[in-house]
Amino acid sequence: MDGTRERITTNIRKGVLEFCVLALLSRRDMYGLELADSLVARGLTASEGSLYPLLARMRQAGSVETRWLTPEQGHARRYYAITDQGRAQLRVFAAVWRDIQPHVDELMTEET
Amino acid sequence: MTSHALPEAAETYLRALGAELSDAPPDTVREIVEDVRAHITDALGSGRTMDQALAGLGSPQAVAGQARDELALADRAPDHAERAGRTLRAVAVAVGVLTAVCVSFLLPFAALPLGLGQAGPDGQSIVQRYGAGFAMLTLLPALIAVAPFVLPARTRRVAGVVGALVLTAFTVVSGEIGLYYFPLVLLLWAAVIVPSAMRRGIGRVAVRVWRLVAAAFVALPAILIASSVATGTVGVDWLGVALWGVGPLVLGALCGFGIRAGYAVTALAGALVMILAMVQPGLLFAAFWLFGGVYLMIGASGFAAMRARHRTPLQTMKPVQ
């Protein structure tokens, strides 16, 4: 059963992780570790390492960009920021998610 | 970009990650490696231990696998290190066969450490004296060299190391005949060490040191020639100077700068010198044979270890609407 759970979790995360990253970045720019910690804390990714290949693809697709920033305290860090294209994608995802989510919830209530 | 060096464990991790993605577009790989480097720096800065930081990331193989997935790269292209090992082993086998021919036909049987030398007239080769059957024995080292090709993948590395050890021992204990097999032994070690170093990831400093040592050795004949000409021990034969002086200098420079073609030509020059030594065995036979062998080993190792400079065909991205 554990294998099944793991497989389902992996599949669902795969579908939503990219947009959760966009959602986090739409609030404010974040550096890698910060982003990784936020996702792990929410159980949205199991391994921090898988975040960076995803970010590489998103960067190529133009939904995020990286820049070096020096915060008021601390050293220069590589920050990730959402682009306009990324915001547009996030809006589309949010609309799709709002459509699907209540239906899935309704069907699942019988299972608990 | 600030990419200060991290503790060795982290650098090893980053090198391994880069090596796993050696067939991906270099710019993309550099960015991923830089991202992960920044992550490790921040994780250490926030009080995590190196073990925690690396464990959180997952293995380099797992991250690379994820990247392949995301970037829609083909699954690991034929392993680069594996291919380098195969190339070097193939060269070793060819040298093994050449050596067998050399030993069977050229070596006077008196050189054999068997105490049978007195039994016949001097100057007979092994084939003349003992016949073709015995001469087949001289092929045994070549067979040992070829063994890892035909063994199952699991045992290949061990077989490579054992073969190299056995032949090293043989070379050391068997006197003059061992000398003949020295180039083969060098290449067998190269076939073991080069791929394993590539798998571990070779540091930038190590690469630089290796290139300088290779360059120095390859250029050595030029220095010898120059000093003999300067001291007047040999007459100035301009063709000779060009061939044995300028040639090695140019090759040495190419190797020093890490030009792959330089290593290829060095390997060819080494093979040629070995064949020349065989065809016209003279007083300096051993010197030419051994020097050619080292040239071949350096050239073949450098050539095999360096990646051919071809760009991966345009990678396909998963389009996101």
From TrEMBL, chain A:
Protein name: PadR family transcriptional regulator
SUPFAM superfamilies: Winged helix' DNA-binding domain
Record-annotated Transcription regulator PadR N-terminal domain positions: 21-91
InterPro entries linked to this entry: Metal_resp_DNA-bind_regulator, Tscrpt_reg_PadR_N, WH-like_DNA-bd_sf, WH_DNA-bd_sf
Record Gene3D superfamilies: Winged helix-like DNA-binding domain superfamily/Winged helix DNA-binding domain
Source taxonomy: Bacteria, Bacillati, Actinomycetota, Actinomycetes, Micromonosporales
Domain of life: Bacteria
Automatic annotation (TrEMBL), chain B:
Residues annotated as transmembrane: 90-110, 130-151, 158-174, 180-197, 209-230, 236-254, 261-279, 285-308
Residues spanning the signal sequence: none
Superkingdom of this protein's organism: Bacteria
Keywords attached to this entry: Membrane, Transmembrane, Transmembrane helix
Presence of the UniProt keyword Membrane in the record: yes
Pfam families in the cross-refs: HAAS (PF22564)
Record-given protein name: DUF1700 domain-containing protein
UniProt key word Acetylation: no
